[in-house]
Amino acid sequence: MATEQASSIVVRAAPASGWSRFPRQTLALLRREALTELRSRETPVAMIVFAFLVLLIFSFAFDLRSDTSPEVLSGILWSAIFFSAMLGFGRGFSGERERGTLDGMLLAPVDRSAIYLSRLLSHLLLMFIMEAAALPAAALLFNIPVWRPRLLLAVLLGTVGFAVVGTLFAAIAANSRARDVLLPVLVLPVSVPIVIASVEETVAALSGPSLLPPLPWMRLSAGYTLLFFILSMVLFEHVCEE
Amino acid sequence: MDNLGYLIAAYVIIWLGLFAYLFWMSGMLKTLGAEVEELRLRLRARSDQSEAGAQPPAPVEAAGR
Amino acid sequence: MAVLAAPARRRASDATSRNGWLLILNGAAALLVLATLVAALALTPPERVEGNVFRIFYVHVPLAWLMYVAFFVVFAASALYLWKRSDTWDRVARVSAEVGLLFTTLVLISGSIWGRPVWGVWWTWDARLTTTLVLWFIYLAYLLLRAYAQEGGQAPRYAAVLGIIGFVDVPIVQFSVTWWRTLHPQSTVLESGHLSGSMLATLFLSLIAFTVFGLAIFLQRFRLETLRDHARALRQQLDDEEGFA
Q1: Where in chain B are the domains?
Q2: Measured between alpha carbons, how far is C29 from C37 in angstroms, rounded to an integer?
Q3: Å from C60 to nearest chain B CA?
Q4: Do the domain assignments include residue C15?
Q5: Which of A41, C24, C97, C174 lies deepest, with the highest CB count within 10 Å?
Q6: Is residue C243 situated within a structural domain?
Q7: Is residue C13 part of a domain?
Q8: Predicted structure pTM score
Q9: Which residue does chain C place closest to B58, by CA atoms?
Q10: What pLDDT digit, counting tens, does each position of A172-215 carry?
Q11: Crossing angle of helices C127-147/C154-180, nearest 10°?
Q12: Distance from CA of C98 to the nearest CA of B (A)
């Protein structure tokens, strides 16, 4: 059932040739995946609740008061974002459903990278939804000025960078045993640079005036994201086959 | 005197570690070598039987599963 | 029956010459390692600042070198596997990952033991140590991925992807951690070039010795893995045939 749906959607979206094929496939896939995820509402809700809980627990764990440093606050915020993201990525594509829909897509003449891109975009959507709830919550709980452009930019860059590797490894972990545990084991070591960059850039955003020239951290985030995006697009076909 | 204890500890741990690994490997090589021999013999026995056209016996409990 | 015998005969003669080379390699490794131990522990003088504890340097540095070599081999073998789809490359990758994890563990342990008397702490979050720790986790992730993969040919592909991504990541990790933590109590020796002639010679010797030793370990492990795959294949064949019984 899912198999036929998926392949028919993609075949319809794919004109015979030309430049428009890739974006159209991607959009078609994205529409399908995002709608599936969001219509059920389970994943976004679970992610938001989880993010809130992380913020809460860390407040107790670090015994936060009004004079807490930007370093600690930045760390707490990003812990909430990254852990919640992994929860969302892990849930999205569970074993059998994955097999079914993936086989369907593979039957159609679809670019493997389009599958990756559509997944990435749907994961990004999930993360943005979660952050739209978590950031105001953090602003309220910790009295941090999240509305500074610099901080929002830092969040944006960190989100995209993390989602780029997270999406690739989520596809790998989805087809393994112990997938919930395996995903963090795979993603976290590789994501160290983006974690460091995001936290440090957020610290700068929280503690300084917003118009300082960007530190190397933003360049690191951008470079990391670009590099691993390209690498993932290229390698994804090896994840897909069978 | 002069942190000799640390020096000794480091060298002992490193060399013990490396040789323990080598030791484990040689043990596994023996075990696996024996297993491969046994498997080969069983395969040969089975193909001998089918050549001779004999009725294959009731399936034996596969050992070492 | 002749079909079974011919490959066995060829295998036997290949094995003999291969075993000959292996013996030479193992012998050379043993000699070189012994020479290194003598040089490192007895022949070179203690270091000016750190004293005798500095001798850990002569095992710590070569192990770190081996760690990076192993990681590169995982990367290269992964890429070659994805390109050629040959099981041998996959075997090279997974053997190198396991051996690399061993080396990384020893680097961390030796570094920590060395750090305690010299820096006063068992661990500091300086750039090199932290990167090594991340590398340890990447190796571990590779092995866990293989361990938790489902049956069916995906594990080698997935692992190869991780092997490539991990390798590309390591310099970036090094970069970012260096920016993050610029407090490495710079090893006075390498910085100010106080490595005397005999120390440099010992270091050089130890690098060569460990490279040969590392190669010997790798080949032994590779032999073991080949045997394991062989056993698995034979077992599979037996299962298939027993299915017909």
Answers
A1: 1-49
A2: 12
A3: 9
A4: no
A5: C97
A6: no
A7: no
A8: 0.85
A9: C245
A10: 998 888 888 899 999 999 999 999 999 988 988 888 765 555 56
A11: 170
A12: 11
